[in-house]
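FAQ: What does a ligand-bound record look like?

Like this one, built around thiamine diphosphate:
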Amino acid sequence: MSDMSSAEQWTHPEEGDLPPATAAKPTKDQVIAGLRATSEGGADLTQLLTPEGERVPSQIFDPYVADIDFEALRGLYKDMVIVRRADREANAMQRQGQLGIWVPLLGQEAAQIGSGRALRPNDMAFPSYREHGVGYARGVSFKEMLGLFRCTSMGEWDYQAHGFHPYTIVIGNQVLNATGYAMGQKFDGKVGDDDGEATIVYFGDGATSQGDVHEGFVWAAVYDAPVVFFCQNNQWAISEPTERQSRLPLYQRARGYGFPGIRVDGNDVLGCLAVTRWALEACRHGNGPVLIEAFTYRMDAHTTTDDPTRYRLSDEVETWKLKDPIERVRVYLTRNGGADASFFEQVEAEADEFAADLREFVFTMEDPPPERIFDNVYAEPSAALDKQREEFLAYLGGFEGGVH
Ligand SMILES: Cc1ncc(C[n+]2csc(CCOP(=O)(O)OP(=O)(O)O)c2C)c(N)n1
Ligand SMILES: [Mg+2]
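The answer part, i.e. the structure of the complex:
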C-alpha cells in the first residue's frame, strides 16, 4: 500500500525533469511509460501462480489464500471450466441465430472467478456486460443471464438477493452507481470492522477513459467509500489498444486520486482471489477505495458483432494462449497431487452437461408477451402506466391471432 503521508510525492519535480513545453511528440520517457501500460510490469505484477503452474510465495498475499487447499482449488478450477464451457456454448448459440448477441468472457475466467469468489453474501457487485463469471459466482443462473442476450428479458435476476446488479452497457456508468451505493454503506454505518460490507465494480481498460469513472474515483476517495474498483485490463476496448488510452499503467492512476492501486495477474485465479480479498478487507474496515488492475486478455472477439482479425495480429492471441488461466491450475494440481485424471474428466463431463442444459433451455425459451415492457418500470403502482398498458392491450387486440 502506498504511504499517502510521504512528502516526496507532493514535491514539485526539478526543472530539469520537465519536458520542454514545446515538445510536439511524446518524450522518450512518456513513450516508455506508454509501453509499460501494456507490458506486464515485472515486479509491479502480483502473481501467485505462474503460467507454468509454479506457486510464487508472497508475504503479503499468502495469508489471504491460506484456506485454499487442494479441494478449494479444485472448486475454483471447476468454476472456471464451467463458465468457459457456458461461454462457448452461448457463443455457438448466437452463431446459430438463437441469441441476439453474445459478449464472450474467454480468457477472463480467473479474473472473474477469483474476484467473484472473494465476495461475501452481503457485498454488492456492479458488473458491466462481460461479467457472466462473476454472476455465476454470485449464484445468478446462466439461464437468467442468457435471457438478456436472447432479448426475452432485461436481465431481471434478484439483484439484492444475489448481490449482483444489472448489466450496464453505457461504458463506465456503473462506477458512479457503485460509488453511490458504497457511500450509502458508509453512511449506514456498515463499515468499520471485519463484519463490514463492501462493494466491487467491474469495468474495462477502455472505461478508464470515461468521465464517469473519473468522477466515481473522486467521490469514492473523498468519502472513503468502501468500493473496490476492479478493472479488467483485457488489452482492448473493441479495436482500441490500451496504449491509446493511457501513458502509464492503469493501476498507477489510483495514486492521483489518493487511494492504493495494484496490478494483479488477471489470469491467475489465486492471485485475483487474494488481492480482491485484501482490497475488500481494506474497504470493510473503512480504509476507503482500492483500484485493482487485473492484467488479462480478451481471447475472443469484443462481441459476436466484432471481427478482431481486422485490428490485431494472431501472434498476440497465440502468446496469450500460453498464459491460459485454466491450464496453469490444471498443471499445478496435477504436478502436486491435488487432482488426478479422473477429476479432470469428471469436470469436463459436468461442463458438457451444464452446456447441454443451457442449450435445451434457450431453444425452448418462451417469448414474453409484448405488454411485459410495462413491468418493473416503477417500484410503486402507477395510474398513468396502467392506463398506457390498457391502451396498448386494446391496440394489440386489434391484430388477429395476436402479435409475435
Ligand atoms: C458511453 C459509451 N460509449 C461508447 C460505447 C460503445 N462501446 C461499447 S463496448 C466499448 C469498449 C469498452 O472497452 P473496455 O472498457 O476495455 O471493456 P471490454 O469490452 O474490453 O470488456 C465501447 C466503446 C458505449 N457502450 N458506451
Ligand atoms: Mg477492454
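Follow-up question: can I read anything off the structure? Yes, for example: The radius of gyration is 23 Å.
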